[in-house]
Automatic annotation (TrEMBL):
InterPro entries: Acetoacetate_decarboxylase, ADC_dom_sf. It comes from Actinomadura montaniterrae. This is Acetoacetate decarboxylase. SUPFAM superfamilies: Acetoacetate decarboxylase-like. GO terms for molecular function: lyase activity. Signal peptide: none annotated.
Length: 219
């Protein structure tokens, strides 16, 4: 998770009609994530995500520092970019939930102490992320329910998303990001993410997830 300029983040997701959440005045949260799916309805695959925390549609911006903190309880995650490395999950993700999936090579190295992932197109790297796990968190740590938002072909959708994590580790900082020459990499570079220090990094040893049907958002 990275703190980025709110105005720049809002410009990136303007096409969705959603509004960026600001836990601090003038700052938004951009999250980079990579996942190895081992067993599920969409088969095994690798996935990378660029997401922003957003306010629920129709929610006015909170005022004051305390109001901003309270408002973070209801935020959702807007999925801006979601490359995957298998055709079946690409088709299902786009047709069922409207997730902006595209096909890429996504090599991962999760065996070592540092967890690494890259997104590549035709052998050219768009983004690389390396995460150093922190100390273990107490059992039950994490966010069990989240509203995931997406916008595909001009339609914005909300998908309720339930997570059950275990073996969660968290630390301040702990992530290194290197950006390439993909258009999304240029957006992240404009947000200041090239080699930026993360607010926090989280690794999850095992994660079960359930996605409910998507609903169109009308704001």
């Amino acid at each position: 998770m990275f703190a980025v300029p709110a105005a720049a983040a809002q410009a990136v997701i303007a096409y969705s009609g959603l509004e960026i959440a600001e836990p601090m005045a003038g700052r938004a949260i951009c999250s980079l994530a990579f996942v190895r799916y081992a067993d599920g309805d969409l088969g095994p695959y690798h996935e990378f995500a660029v997401a922003f925390l957003v306010r629920p549609p129709g929610t006015p911006p909170p005022s004051g520092g305390l109001g901003r903190l309270r408002g973070m309880r209801d935020v959702g995650a807007f999925i801006h970019w979601l490359p995957v490395n298998q055709e079946f999950t690409l088709e299902c993700g786009r047709s069922i939930w409207g997730f902006p999936k595209e096909l890429a090579d996504i090599p991962m190295d999760l065996a070592g102490r540092v967890k690494r992932c890259a997104v590549q197109f035709g052998g050219r790297t768009a983004v690389e992320v390396a995460v150093r796990p922190g100390p273990p968190m107490p059992g039950g740590a994490g966010a069990p329910k989240v509203d995931a938002y997406s916008c595909l072909d001009g339609v914005t959708r909300r998908t309720p998303w339930t997570l059950t994590p275990s073996d969660v580790r968290m630390r301040p900082g702990g992530a290194k990001v290197v950006l390439g020459d993909h258009p999304v990499a240029e957006e992240l570079r404009a947000l200041g993410l090239d080699r930026a220090r993360a607010l926090s990094s989280t690794t999850v040893g095992h994660l079960s997830m359930t996605f409910d049907p998507a609903e169109e958002v009308h704001s």
